[in-house]
Amino acid sequence: MKLRFTKMQGAGNDFVVLDATRHPMPLTSDQLRRVGDRRFGVGCDQILVIEAPAKDAAPDVDFGYRIFNSDGSEVEQCGNGARCFVRYVVDKGLTDKRTIRVQTINALLELRLQDDGRVTVDMGAPVFDLPRIPFDPKDTMPRHENGFERWPLSLGDGMTAEVAVVSMGNPHAVQRVDDVDQAPVGLVGPLVEHHESFPRRVNAGFLQIVSRGEVKLRVFERGAGETLACGTGACAAVVAGIRLGWLDAAVEVHTRGGDLRIEWAGMTPGGPGLSAPVYMTGPAQTVFEGEIEL
């Protein structure tokens, strides 16, 4: 089986994009892992499958969208991938719209292509309800800061991580660090990802506050390991930082792969409240195209 693909990246978070709008593309987990393998396949953080709208989709839905990690597991959301999605469907002539509505496994996204080539994604409202994240604190007691919880997670060998938990369509645990470059992401990230309090595992974020409008971030992603950038991770980190009183409503997020702008009015006086959507703006580029034998 020969598979045509497009390799794309958004702030260094890289993707293999597959067009299944004309014909279904039922790839097995083994085939997905082969595509995502950086030595024996194309190599990527996630595989994005673009589909026609489902038969029961609302009339204003333009596309369906599925996201798979490089280990073959399907996930709910990927912010950097959503931006690449927009560039792909526009560049390939699959749509002439500048604002596109996309149905994922658990959300409806609105994506906008800006005049400067960057893409803004309405990521929807963050989720704080613990069972919906999902997060089971068991007997753990949180420490409250600015009215929001930071949960201590026991990681073994005397290690503890204090995290704020939030979902952006996928679960995130955000911890504050003094210096993100020195943070033990490779050690602590997997321990947080697989902690028993997260029944579906979790993305582990490491957040350094530079100012109220600027942060640095590294994310150890569930099923992918540390990536150069994580769009939902940037959203979750900024939302957590705003709720904890550390950040203002618009924040520049510096990742190792590039910069993202995250905006959330959830704590703005007189604003829409916690149900306000999160907006993410950043780059998306095609790297190369090719064909792989599976």
Written description of the protein model:
There is one protein chain. Helix content is 15%, strand content 40%. With 294 residues, the protein is mainly beta. The protein has a 19-stranded mixed beta sheet that branches. A hairpin with a 2-residue loop joins strand 9 and strand 10. The longest helix has 13 residues. The protein is globular and about 50 Å long. The mean pLDDT is 95.
Query: Largest sheet at a glance?
Result: 19 strands, mixed
Extended strand count: 19
Question: Over the alpha carbons, how many angstroms does the gyration radius reach?
Answer: 18 Å
Order of helices and strands: EEHEEEHEEEEEEEHEEEHEEEE
Number of distinct helices: 4
Structural category is: mainly beta
Mean pLDDT score: 95
List low-confidence stretches.
none
Nutshell version of this structure?
This protein is mainly beta and about 290 residues long. It is about 15% helix and about 40% strand. Strand 12 (about 170-175), helix 3 (about 185-195) and strand 13 form a beta-alpha-beta unit.
